[in-house]
Write a structure and sequence with these properties.
The complex is a heterodimer of chains A (about 230) and B (about 600). Chain A has about 230 residues and is mainly alpha-helical. Chain A folds into 2 domains: about 1-35, no CATH class; about 35-230, Four Helix Bundle (Hemerythrin (Met), subunit A). Chain A is about 75% helix and about 5% strand. Chain A has 8 helices and 2 strands; from the N terminus they run ααααββαααα. In chain A, strands 1-2 form a two-stranded antiparallel sheet. Chain A is globular. Chain A starts with a helix and ends with a helix. The relative contact order of chain A is 0.13. Among the domains of chain B are: about 25-205, no CATH class; about 530-590, no CATH class. Chain B is about 60% helix and about 0% strand. Chain B is built from 14 helices and 2 strands, in the order H-H-H-H-H-H-E-E-H-H-H-H-H-H-H-H. Chain B has helices spanning about 20-25, 30-60, 70-110, 115-135, 165-195, 205-240, 260-295, 305-315, 330-360, 370-390, 395-400, 405-435, 440-465, 485-515, and strands at about 250, 255. In chain B, helix 2 (about 30-60) runs parallel beside helix 4 and helix 3 (about 70-110) runs parallel beside helix 12 (about 405-435). The longest helix of chain B has about 35 residues, at about 70-110. The chains are: A mainly alpha (about 230), B mainly alpha (about 600). At the A-B interface, helix 3 and helix 7 of A face helix 5, helix 6 and helix 7 of B.
C-alpha cells in the first residue's frame, strides 16, 4: 500500500521537475530516498570535499607566493627506465590503477544488488588490492623523491621549498584516505562474507563504493594540479 | 537479495535494548538525552574556566600592577584561552552538542539520533579535545598566547608565550574537536532530513530545529578550513615547512623559513571564523524564536520568512570572511565586495529582529525568566548588530580596528547574545530534563544581574574604543592620547565584570539545587505545542515515545487559537481531537 502511494507521488510529480523537488522537500517523508548511512556518507564526503578543496587552494596560493621557482614536474616526476628518461610514467600507472579500482568497485556494487555475495566479496578485495598497490607505488615515489632527489618538506634542491611541503602533505593526506579505504573495504568484505548483511541488505557496499569513488575523484584533481601544472 | 526497502521512521519499532547498568545508562550511554547532558556539563565546566580567565584579565586591566601573578605573558595566554574556549568549547559544544543532541530527536519525533553509537563517540572525542586543551595549562611554557585567531608567524615563534608546547596542544585539540563535531554534525543533519516522524514536514519544524540544522551544515563546511590550517601550522611548527612563514628575522636571527604566506592563514581562519559566528548565532536565533512565541502565547510572526532568513544568513556567512581582514592588506575592490556582502547580511537579520518584535506585539506576554532572557537577547543582539554594521564598512573599520570597540561589538553580538539565549533555553527546557522548575526568584536575580551587568561592562568599552584604547594590551603605560578617565572606566568595567561573574555562580547553585529540590513542574508547564513536551513519559524516557511514534498534524505555533479550550494545540493533536469551547462549537477555527 505504501508503494502505491509512492507510485502516485512520483506520477503527480512528473509534471514539473522543480515542483517535484519542492513537493519532495515539503513532504512528511525522508528528504532523500536512501538509507540513513548513505546520506551520511554523502554529507561526510561533502565536508571532505571542502577539506581537499582548501588543501588544493592553499597549495595554489603558496605556489604563487613562493619566492623561488617551482620545480618542473616533468623532471621531478620522471623515471629513468633502461636508459630512457620517461616523464610521469609512474604516476600514469598509479592513476590507471586507481581508476581501474573504481571499475572493480562499481562491479562489486552491481553484484551486491544482484545478491551475488561471492563475486561481491572478490571484487571488493580486488579493489582493496589495487588500492594497496597504489599505496605501494606512492611509497616508492616518495622514497625516490626523498632519497634520490633530496626533497624534504622543509627543503628542496630542485626549487621552491613549498613544493616538498605541499606535495608530501596533500598526497600524504590522500594516501591516508586510500589506506583507510583499503581497511574499510577489507572489513566490509569480511563482514559480508560472514553474512552480517544478509538480513539488512547490501547497501553498505554502495556506501563503501561512494567513499572509494570519492577518493579516486580527489586523485584526479591532485594529479592535474601537481603533475600536469 | 533485492534492494532493501527504506523503512519509514514512523513505523520503526522500539527495538533498542534499554540499558540497565549505571555505566551503560549514564556513562557509555548512546541515548541522545544523556549524551546531550554530558556535552552540556562538560561545556559549562570548561566555560567556567574561561569565565575565571576573563575575570583575571579584567583585574589586570582595571587595576594594573596590583596583581603580581599576572605578567604580560600570562595575560596574553588568558586572553587566548578565554576566547578559544568560549567560542568553540563552550558555545559551539553547548548549542549543538548539548541542545542539538537533546532537542533534535525529540522535536522531529524520532527515537534517537540515526547513529547513536557515532553520537556517543562524538561526545568522548569532544571530551578528549577538552582534556588536550586544558593540558596546555600544565606544560612548560603554558598555553599559547597567540590570541584566539592564532595568526602566524607570531603564533609559533619563540617570544610568543606557549610557542613550544602550548600552540601544538591547541592545534591538536582543535583538530580533535573537529573530528568530534563532524561525527555529531553528520548525525544531526541526517536525523533532521531522514528521521522526521509522520506529518513532520520541514516547514512544520520548530525554528529551533531550523537554526540547529543550518548551523550544523555551516559547521560541516567551515570547520574543514580550520582543520587544514591547523595541519599546516603544525607542520610549520614541527617539521619546519613554510606554508605560512615568510623569510623572518626573529630576535636577531634569520629563521629557516622563507616564501610562505601569512595572509593565507588569515583567509583560511576567517573562512572558518565567520561562519563560526553563525554556527553560534543561528541555533540561538531558532531557540529564542520558540521561547518568544511560547511565552507570548502567539504564533511566531512570519514563520516562512524566519526560515528563509536563517538559510540566507547561513549562505551569506560564507562570502563575508575578509571583513575581518580590512587592515591585513587587500585589493580595495575586495574590501568593497566584502563590505557589501557584510551589509547585505543585515537584511535577513533585521527581518528576524522585526519578526520577534511583531511576535511580541499585542501578545499575551508572560514575563517568565526564559522570556526575560529572550527579550534581553533582542536588546543585546540589536546593539551588537548595529555596531557590526559600523565595523562592516571599511572606512569605519580602519580606525576602530583592534580597539576595544571591536571587543565590545563581538562580545555583545556573539558573546552575550547567544549566552542570553542559552540561559533562556536552560530556564525554558529545564523542566523537560528534570520535571522541576529552576527557582524563579534566583532566576530573576540572575537575569537582572546578567543583563544590566553586561551592559555595564560593554557599553563603556565602545567609548574606550573611540578613545583608541587598543585591545590585547597588558597595560597602557604612559600613553598621551588616552586620558586618565579611561582608566577610571576600566576599573568600573572590571567591578561590573566581577559582579556578573559572581551572579553566574548563583545560576549554577540554582541549577544544582533545583535539580533535586526545585518546584515540581508537571507535564508541559509552559503549554508548548512542540513535540518534545508531548512524550509518553515525562521527563522523556529511553526511546522517547513508548510504543508508537507520534503523528504530526500541524505546525509548532498554534497558540491562542480562537475558541479552543486550551489556548494552544500541540503538534500531535489531530483536527478531530481538538477540544473546542462548548458554546462555540459551530464556530470552526482555521485548521492548519
Amino acid at each position: 500500500m505504501q508503494n502505491d502511494d509512492h507510485q502516485k507521488d512520483h506520477e503527480t510529480n512528473k509534471a514539473s521537475s522543480w515542483q517535484s523537488v519542492v513537493n519532495d522537500w515539503s513532504a512528511d517523508k525522508q528528504s532523500f530516498d536512501m538509507p540513513w548511512g548513505k546520506l551520511m556518507m554523502w554529507l561526510f564526503l561533502l565536508s571532505d570535499t571542502f577539506i581537499f578543496s582548501i588543501f588544493l587552494i592553499s597549495y595554489m596560493n603558496v605556489r604563487m607566493s613562493a619566492t623561488v621557482a617551482w620545480p618542473n614536474p616533468s623532471e621531478v616526476f620522471a623515471l629513468t627506465i633502461a636508459g630512457h628518461h620517461i616523464p610521469l610514467v609512474l604516476i600514469a600507472i598509479m592513476t590507471f590503477i586507481l581508476i581501474t579500482s573504481s571499475g572493480t568497485m562499481a562491479m562489486a556494487v552491481n553484484y551486491a544488488y544482484q545478491g551475488n555475495k561471492k563475486k561481491t566479496v572478490y571484487l571488493m578485495l580486488a579493489t582493496a588490492l589495487l588500492g594497496a598497490s597504489f599505496i605501494g607505488m606512492q611509497a616508492f615515489e616518495w622514497t625516490k623523491l626523498i632519497v634520490e632527489e633530496g626533497i624534504r618538506p622543509w627543503e628542496n634542491p630542485m626549487g621552491a621549498n613549498q613544493f616538498g611541503a605541499a606535495f608530501f602533505m596533500i598526497t600524504g593526506f590522500h594516501g591516508l584516505h586510500v589506506s583507510a579505504g583499503v581497511i574499510y573495504l577489507t572489513v566490509i568484505a569480511k563482514r559480508i562474507n560472514q553474512g552480517k548483511y544478509d538480513k539488512k541488505g547490501y547497501h553498505i557496499v554502495e556506501i563503501t563504493g561512494l567513499y572509494w569513488h570519492f577518493v579516486d575523484l580527489v586523485w584526479v584533481f591532485i594529479f592535474a594540479f601537481f603533475y600536469l601544472w | 537479495m533485492t534492494k532493501m526497502e527504506n523503512v519509514a521512521i514512523a513505523d520503526q519499532v522500539d527495538e533498542s535494548s534499554h540499558p540497565s547498568t549505571f555505566m551503560s545508562k549514564y556513562v557509555w550511554s548512546q541515548d541522545h538525552k544523556v549524551i546531550a547532558i554530558q556535552y552540556s556539563i562538560t561545556a559549562i565546566l570548561v566555560g567556567l574556566v574561561a569565565l575565571v580567565l576573563s575575570g583575571i584579565m579584567r583585574l589586570q586591566l582595571g587595576f594594573p600592577n596590583e596583581f603580581s601573578f599576572i605578567d604580560p605573558s600570562s595575560y596574553l595566554q588568558f586572553v587566548t584561552m578565554h576566547g578559544m574556549i568560549m567560542v568553540i568549547y563552550l558555545l559551539t559544544a553547548l548549542l549543538l552538542g548539548g541542545f542539538g543532541n537533546y532537542l533534535i530527536p525529540l522535536m522531529v519525533g524520532a527515537r534517537d539520533m540515526v547513529f547513536p553509537y557515532l553520537n556517543m563517540l562524538s561526545y568522548w572525542t569532544y571530551l578528549l579535545s577538552v582534556v588536550v586543551l586544558l593540558a596546555s595549562f600544565f606544560v612548560s611554557g603554558g598555553p599559547t598566547g597567540a590570541g584566539w585567531t592564532l595568526y602566524p608567524p607570531q603564533a609559533i615563534l619563540s617570544g610568543t608565550p606557549g610557542a613550544d608546547a602550548g600552540i601544538l596542544l591547541m592545534l591538536v585539540s582543535l583538530a580533535i574537536f573537529i573530528v568530534a563535531f563532524t561525527m555529531g554534525g553528520l548525525n544531526y543533519v541526517t536525523t533532521i532530513l531522514q528521521a522526521r516522524t509522520k506529518g513532520m514536514t520541514l516547514m512544520r519544524m520548530p525554528l529551533t530545529l531550523w537554526g540547529i540544522f543550518v548551523a550544523t551544515i555551516l559547521g560541516l563546511l567551515a570547520f574543514p578550513a580550520l582543520l587544514v590550517s591547523a595541519i599546516m601550522m603544525i607542520f610549520d611548527k614541527v617539521i619546519g615547512t613554510s606554508f605560512f612563514m615568510p623569510a623572518i628575522l626573529s630576535l636577531g636571527e634569520t629563521l629557516d623559513h622563507s616564501g610562505g604566506s601569512p595572509i593565507l592563514f588569515q583567509h583560511l581562519f576567517w573562512f572558518f571564523g565567520h561562519p563560526e559566528v553563525y554556527i553560534v548565532a543561528l541555533p540561538a536565533f531558532g531557540m529564542v524564536s520558540d521561547v518568544i512565541s511560547i511565552h507570548a502565547r502567539k504564533n511566531i510572526f512570519g514563520y516562512r520568512m524566519m526560515v528563509w532568513a536563517i538559510i540566507a544568513i547561513g549562505g551569506l556567512s560564507f562570502v563575508v570572511w575578509a571583513h575581518h581582514m580590512y587592515v591585513s592588506g587587500m585589493n580595495p575592490y575586495f574590501g568593497f565586495f566584502f563590505a557589501t556582502t557584510t551589509l547585505i547580511i543585515a537584511i535577513p537579520t533585521a527581518l528576524k529582529v522585526y519578526n520577534w518584535l511583531l511576535t511580541l506585539w499585542r501578545g499575551n506576554i508572560h514575563l517568565t525568566v526564559p522570556m526575560l532572557f529572550a527579550i534581553g537577547f533582542i536588546f543585546t543582539f540589536t546593539h551588537g548588530g548595529l555596531t557590526g554594521l559600523m565595523l562592516g564598512n571599511v572606512i569605519i573599520d580602519l580606525p576602530l580596528s583592534d580597539t576595544f570597540f571591536v571587543v565590545a561589538h563581538f562580545h555583545m553580538v556573539m558573546g552575550v547574545s547567544p549566552i542570553m539565549v542559552l540561559f533562556a533555553a536552560i530556564y525554558h527546557w529545564f523542566p523537560l530534563l528534570t520535571g522541576r522548575f529552576l527557582n524563579n526568584k534566583l532566576g530573576h536575580f540572575h537575569f537582572w544581574g546578567t543583563f544590566l551587568g553586561t551592559y555595564a561592562i560593554y557599553m563603556p568599552m565602545h567609548y574606550l574604543g573611540f578613545l583608541g584604547v587598543p585591545r590585547r594590551y597588558y597595560a597602557m603605560g604612559d600613553t598621551d592620547f588616552i586620558p586618565q578617565s579611561a582608566q577610571t572606566l576600566n576599573a568600573g568595567i572590571t567591578v561590573s565584570a566581577i559582579i556578573v561573574g559572581l551572579v553566574q555562580l548563583v545560576f549554577i547553585a540554582n541549577v544544582i539545587w533545583s535539580t533535586f529540590k526545585g518546584k515540581k513542574s508537571g507535564r508541559n508547564p509552559w503549554k508548548a505545542t512542540s513535540l518534545e513536551w508531548q512524550t509518553a513519559q515525562f521527563p522523556p524516557g529511553h526511546g522517547n515515545w513508548g510504543e508508537k511514534l507520534p503523528q504530526v498534524y500541524r505546525w509548532a505555533y498554534d497558540y491562542s487559537v480562537p475558541n479552543v479550550k486550551d489556548d494552544f494545540i500541540p503538534q500531535n493533536v489531530a483536527p478531530k481531537d481538538v477540544e473546542y469551547l462548548a458554546d462555540k462549537q459551530n464556530n470552526n477555527p482555521r485548521q492548519k
